[in-house]
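Q: Fold this one first, please.
A: Sequence and structure below.
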Amino acid sequence: MVAPLLVVLLFSSVLSYLGVHVIRRQVIFVDLALGQVAALGASVGFLFGIDPTSPGAYIFSLCFALVAAAIFAVTRPRGGPIPHEAVIGLVFAAASAATYLVVDRSPHGAEHVQDVLTGTVLWTTWSDLRWVALVVVAAGLLLLPVHSRLRILSSEEGGEHGTEVRAAGWDFFFYAIFGLVISVTVRTIGVLPTFGMLVAPAILGCLIASRFRTQFAIAVGASAAASVAALLVAWHLDLPGGPPLVLGQGLVLLGGALVLYLIRAEARGQALTRLVVGGVVVALLVLVIVLGGRKLAHMRWSNPDLAQDTSSEAPL
């Protein structure tokens, strides 16, 4: 477990930094879009017979991610009527559709899609760790000298600095580094865990603090704690590593938001009462759903034996 734990700690640092920028830019789903485009690149390489864990697959993913980075940089609105999320969502939908079309023609396509979505982090080797460390360190060395410029462009007044062409160039640089990182996270932990580690800790950091450094520090700590706990739970319960990573990030964000709600409430007694009542209502709804689901499972029209009987009539 040492190699998987070190990998998620490395990802916690770089994804938290990028996540704070994403929250400040208000382009929440750019990670999903870039990740899906990178997955499309790996799927195209897989169609050509390239091993998804090989450097060739990473090159395919990176090239596709750079194309998406150029699209996001050029289409970022600067006072226009169309929100950037519309373009990002369209790219995500198109990349998802293209991925399914590609894997439909690939052997073991269903398994490849599952690996892309949830990753294989528990199977991380020391060789994978060295590759991840190289990419994360390279991204950090590229981002550190231009942090001030990127921070300005990620703030609300970012559009007031420099010409539109220069701003688009810096946006492309940011999204290109984003693609460099996403291409390696997708092949290691998957698209969905990458999104969880990028967004949830950054949201918590932005809820607590207003300065970038403080937001980043809180995000790194929350992401690292949630990731380590999730992997240890997955290991001991013999679960895949990707889904617990997503749930762990979400639970940390939920817990932090509830604590902030209590701390910042003017009447803490009333706030605590609301939380208790809300928790009881949610628990009752879950209980009703579970009991109702068991009841429906025994009804005639949802009998699983019916599907077995109809399938037996199919021609051999």
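Q: Good. Now the second chain.
A: Here it is, same layout.
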Amino acid sequence: MKLSIRKDALNEAIGHVIRAVSPRPVIPILGGIKLDADARGLTLTASDTDMTIQSFIPAEKDGEPVVRLDGGGSLVLGAKFFSEIVKKLPTDTVELEASDARRAVIRSGNAEIELVGMDPEEYPVMPSVGESAAFSINGLQLRQLIHRTVFAVSTNESTPILTGVLWQLAEGRLELTATDRHRLSKAECGVAAEPDLKLDQLVIAGRTLNELSRLIPDDGTVIDVQATDSQVLFRMDGILFHSRLLDGTYPDTSRIITNQYKTELVMSTRELADAIERAYLLSKEEKTNIVRLSTVGDGTIEVSSSSLEIGKVTERITPEHLAGEELKIAFNSRYMLDALKVIDSEKIHIGFTGAMSPILLRPHQDPDMLHLILPYRTTT
């Protein structure tokens, strides 16, 4: 292999794929980045077996050369040092030469670095999705769906299926659901798909979706998605993002979602979030995060928390709309704040089905997002 490449293009591609490199790889070669050069350009690949990212640098872009190839080939270089050294090279052009797969020379200006490589034949092959279901989605919409749900996945590895987000598609609508059994977040949007295409029980790890979200461009580019029973592939401009699906059956959460409430209110999202944030400051000192909400009887609600060592916070708020039975309920304020932070509507609708029944939050007059939080049983 022998080529020269623009440093900015190489840096960007390394930044994309290095997200799939594990700090503790199961086999040494997965601690590296694979480089494949041919007449089309340079392809970089990284994988941790659960997630594989591939970034392609074309030989030419917008009529300007990016990669000049004098000889094709493949090699694998240690990801950590390779990425760090490329960032610190002195000129805008990088020369890369490898007489064999085990040793590479990088030149830039007066700098010359020799790196020991690994055998590219030992590097895992990029998985193939073969015959698969396919649809397309606007990248910004996909990022928003992930942002609105992924925070609610479980961090408990004893229930692996709940560490992922459930994807379901029917009638051209894609719905993402995440739950850790204490809270639930659901969001949906329309996608470009065949009318009869249906997907169910497609579960992608939350960690993987966070990495995917960071790779999505800000220009609203369309992302093509291909899925099988065991894997999913996302295609975007110059990037292939492959993920293994989580094994298992995701629990049916539809039974706990209702539109029948005993008490409901509509109010400013920001005003409620600020009040709960102030109450949270005391509740976290007790290491419980418990905040209480109650109706007062004069059309207002009261948000409160207390700490034996510090004191008590009580704040009254007047909602825009309050109807139904009197209510006293306690909940995890951290869970509530997580949900409120991803609701970008000025007003929020909250439905209560009882002091020990789920709390349901929706952006006011927006049916495409839902958050559910289970309350706490308290003695006071």
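Q: Anything worth noting on the second one?
A: The CA atoms of residues 35 and 378 lie 58 Å apart.
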